[in-house]
Amino acid sequence: MPSWQDFQPFLITGLALGGVYALSGVGMVVLFRATGVLNLSFGAVGAMGALIAWQAINHWGLPQGVAWLICILFSAVITGAYGLVFGTALAKRDPLVKATATLGFALLLLGVMELLWTTSGGASRALTLPTDNSGFTVSGIQIDWTQVIAVVIGIVITIGAAAFLRYTKLGTAMRAMANDREITAMLGVPVNRVLAVAWTGCGVLAGIAGLLLADLVQLDATTLTFLVISALAATLIGRLRSIAVTFVAAIVIGVVSSMIVPIQSITNYANMTPFVLAVVALMVLSGRSSISLERGGI
Question: How wide is the angle at C-alpha 227 spanned by C-alphas 222 and 229, nearest 5°?
Answer without folding.
Answer: 120
